[in-house]
């Protein structure tokens, strides 16, 4: 399948490298707002076509699937442009800036019979299913709580602190702990409490979220763009606990018993970058005539966008383009 990359930044480069090492796909074209940047990107990753505008990219009849790799604030407009030109879409997380945008884009894709899916790679990685099998096996007994965190020093990256670009820790980093909890505990939420520390620009620099589920399960989540964190996910049960190393791209799983001794270990399979799994899922879904990928259904994307909307509302973090 011929893939186009919309946005010639670092994350677009990771995808270009990934696809260039896959047999199932070809990185065929790239679109940037600068022709010079697009050509440089194309040369680096051996891409056939380089376009100096997104409009030119989406009008290329050879391109079947477009990966959107722009800031969160641009996802809505970029996805709409792709869909209106008949292109399937793999859109980088966070899917959009808010739930209203997500619902509109998904509705447009479904009306046109086109695939659109959120490229939150942790939903597609094999270790996600390994973790679920461990929990389902009962090895650690009844699961009652989990913690998950993700932190990188990103406050000097312009888009991360710019409210006009939907900056802040939540949409870029917090989406991962939230999805981690969702994959394990589902969506039967009783209440959510949270707090954040804002940057000088008014976006969240770090945040803590406590989600209490019906039945008594609790998830304590943290994301931080001001510090390095261990990135661990810990799932606690009545017979032991699971240590999930790096919730952003699992580097291995350890299972502990009641005496905190290691009883099982699971290694991560060799991968190109990890992005290949979301690409493979998108290709499979397109070939099957689907408008969504089973790993990240539309309803789950919208639900999590609504949750993040509610968190930002609690914190008073409203992006300029959201104001009436």
SSE layout:
Layout: E1 2-6, H1 10-20, E2 26-31, H2 35-45, E3 49-51, H3 54-58, E4 65-68, H4 72-84, E5 88-92, H5 99-112, E6 116-119, H6 126-137, E7 143-151, H7 158-161, H8 169-185, E8 189-198, E9 204-213, E10 218-224, E11 233-237, E12 240-244, E13 253-256, E14 262-266, H9 276-287, H10 298-315
Parallel strand pairs: 1-2, 1-4, 2-3, 4-5, 5-6, 7-10
Antiparallel strand pairs: 7-11, 8-9, 9-10, 11-12, 12-13, 13-14
Quickly list its features.
324 residues; alpha/beta; eight-stranded mixed sheet; globular
Describe the model:
The chain is globular, with a radius of gyration of 20 Å. It has an 8-stranded mixed beta sheet, with helices on one face. The chain has a 6-stranded parallel beta sheet with strand order 3-2-1-4-5-6, sandwiched between helices. Helices cover 36% and strands 25% of the residues. It has 324 residues and is an alpha/beta fold. The protein contains 10 helices and 14 strands.
> What's the shape?
globular
- The succession of helices and strands, N to C, reads EHEHEHEHEHEHEHHEEEEEEEHH
Major sheet size, sense and barrel closure: 8 strands, mixed
Low-confidence stretches: none
Mean pLDDT: 97
Which strands sit side by side, in order, in the main sheet? Answer: 8-9-10-7-11-12-13-14
What gyration radius follows from the Cα positions, in whole Å? 20 Å
Instruction: Give the count of helical stretches.
Output: 10
Helix content: 25-40%
Structural class: alpha/beta
Distance between the ends: 41 Å
Share in β-strands: 25-35%
Number of strands: 14
